């Protein structure tokens, strides 16, 4: 029986019913981090609590993966802060300019990465603002502040790791295996429809591509869950790459047939079955936590131009915000600048940076109100740690619950409150109940989001339309010679092209039917040409080398007549139907069919 919305708990925010245990773990880790920080007499214990909030992830592997990159990003950011302070400690304007440029460089790196690697890149950017700029009036304290921050982060990381271990937090390995197996069943259904002669369903294809490449950041998280986690991670990568290869083979079944004396359709079905068998083997290896028979990389497509444009905008946002705050003459403007850098940097790792800032602007006043209630009503002047622990419980647990929501708005508000509440409260031993300090902290948190949003209105982020057109132009530019890195398999290169489709969809590509069709056309042609070229390399040292060279030139010129002529000659000289020559001829036929089919689509679009 299908449950109604009223029967589903947390249905408004789309929160999974089993998220309560995760929220309780976050609260326990927060309390442990504060307790250890008080015991060690750290100057800013709330940094440890904020670290827990940032590392709050549903599975143990994800939390440890993010923790490793947070630690790495902090070390790099602290080093950069010390260098920038040493070079420009006597010139505030130059220090702000250097911080803006550094933030832009880190954003550029983040746009070339994904998952927690992108987070680590932006962390190195806004760490400079957190350390160097907040100590702009006392540059001699930068090193001490860096040590304190590093110690607090280490306490936060150890706290969440200990709590996850003691409470048996779920592993990502089993969940990932289940997800990949479910996607494999859907790929098989898509392939079955193609085998039955049904027209290719582009909508189903792009949904499958999006779901497969969307798991890419999680493939590495498995490596942190056990001593053999790297084996499971390798198997998961091979499954993901194999699923894209099988999906591409199923899509190729819809390509037109040729009149050449070769059973191209039968060959395509054999190729599809071969790839399906490879995926089954890799899934078995993932389930048994053993190495797959063939190790595959799962590369990410990188658009350097889009990354550069985003980096320039992030630099200008920070520069505008710092100019305004310096002009305003606020004595504590450095706190706002840190938050401007953090929100701007984290926002570029999302599909909608300005939307992320808007959520921050909405969530900040909510966090201020909740922190005020906690500090001046719930705690009300007490210094007892037990009261602090109990008082934090509802605020932390509810915020953590919201972070698990499938709604980006609710999830964003939950994450902001999970981080902002301990930041505003700033727990200490003894606790300082200073209304003026609370007011100033609250003001600068809200002001940071407001100033950044104003800067993003003046200089808008890279639009979805521009991102789509840039990705499509880059895909078209690779058609004649599809990019394939040294040592990269054709399947791995095809996976990279699939991640470009995922980026295209993130830029609202599903709403642009014509551009999406062009992107899929480029994907089809690139995959076929790349696989065909790989087969042709097997003939370069033999008697068929001239034919292989002729076929390569025909591919560049998109001369399908020559491709079919070469295929006929190879078939005439093939010793048997499963020989290298016959296989290469089949690839030449498939490539010519794909080029002709997409050329017809191109002509149709030009006519319209």
Runs in which pLDDT lies below 50 for 5 or more consecutive residues are 1-9, 258-262
Main sheet overview: none
SSE pattern, N- to C-terminal: HHHHHHHHHHHHHHHHHHHHHHH
Beta percentage is under 5%
User: How confident overall, as mean pLDDT?
Assistant: 85
> What class, by secondary structure content?
mainly alpha
What can you see in these coordinates?
This protein has 608 residues and is mainly α. The chain folds into three domains: 5-170 and 303-462, no CATH class; 172-287, Talin, central domain (A middle domain of Talin 1); 468-607, no CATH class. 74% of the residues lie in helices and 0% in strands. The protein has helices spanning 20-40, 46-54, 60-88, 92-111, 115-133, 142-166, 172-195, 202-213, 216-221, 229-252, 264-287, 304-328, 333-347, 353-379, 385-403, 408-425, 435-458, 464-477, 490-506, 513-536, 545-557, 560-573, 580-607. The radius of gyration is 28 Å and the shape is elongated. Mean pLDDT is 85; it is low at 1-9 and 258-262. This is FUSC family protein. It comes from Bradyrhizobium uaiense. Keywords: Membrane, Transmembrane, Transmembrane helix.
